[in-house]
Amino acid sequence: MKNKIYLLCFIIASFIACNQQKSNTSTTTTPVAPTKPTAIKSTPAASTALDASTLVQEQPLTAHATQFYTNLLWHYEAAVVINNPDAGKEYVGKWVKFNADNTLETAFYDGAITKGRWIIEEDKNILTILEGGERPTLTQWKVQGSSSSDAIMILVGTKKYANNATQIKMMRYSQIPVKEAQ
User: Fold this and answer.
1) d(CA 41, CA 43)
2) Which of 139, 73, 143 is nearest to 104 (CA)?
3) Which residues contact 95 (CB under 8 A, 6 or more apart)?
4) What is the pLDDT of residue 148?
5) Hey, what domains does the chain have and what are their CATH numbers?
6) pLDDT tens digits, residue range 42-69?
7) What are the beta bridge partners of residue 143?
8) Which comes out higher in pLDDT, residue 141 or 182?
9) Contacts from 120-128 at CB under 8 Å and sequence distance 24+?
């Protein structure tokens, strides 16, 4: 079953990567409207000390976003890192709990919980995550939902924090993942 999930994620990742590559190689140019300032006060390049105040949710969460993101836990079901098949294994057993106050908790199985923050740009489906710990990490994802279930979400990395080679399938559960006996 897990092999089928990995194969499905790989197919989805390949399809998305091909579509992104096609759009990035287009020869037509279109004017780009100025974008509004980002909610991020500092970036890893600008500061090595990331903390919980780094992310600020500009618009209050809608009822839909609150329900979708903060209802139960999200497990990292499968991950694909283009050109690095072993890197996807780093997500095995990982889970995250998004809280309505834009804080989060994440861990591997029943291990130590790391706290952080998250924001969502709902109009663009862009999720930015700051995970704390000894080495805080800042990632940004394009969120794709499933038309058949609100318990599935696909995260496609963006170029902003150089995680654009990563795609993750997340599934909603009521409990943390349990490590299988080996």
Assistant:
1) 7
2) 73
3) 73, 74, 75, 76, 106, 107, 108, 173, 176, 177
4) 85
5) 2-20+43-173 (2.40.128.370)
6) 333 333 345 556 689 999 999 999 999 9
7) 155
8) 141
9) 120/57, 120/61, 120/65, 120/69, 121/39, 121/58, 122/59, 122/61, 122/62, 122/64, 122/65, 126/158, 127/155, 128/39, 128/40, 128/55
Q: Which residues of 129-157 are buried (b: 16+ CB within 10 A; e: fewer)?
A: bbbbeeebebbbbbbeeeeeeeebbbbbb
pTM of the model: 0.72
| Other residues' Cβ atoms within 10 Å of the Cβ of residue 76 | 21
- C-alpha 73/C-alpha 173 separation (Å) is 5
Supply the DSSP symbol for 122: T
153-175 pLDDT, tens digit each: 999 999 999 999 999 999 999 99
Output b/e per residue, 88-108; b: 16+ Cβ within 10 A: beebbbbbbbbeeebbbbbbb
**Exposed, middle or buried by CB within 10 Å (0-12, 13-18, 19+), for 7?**
exposed
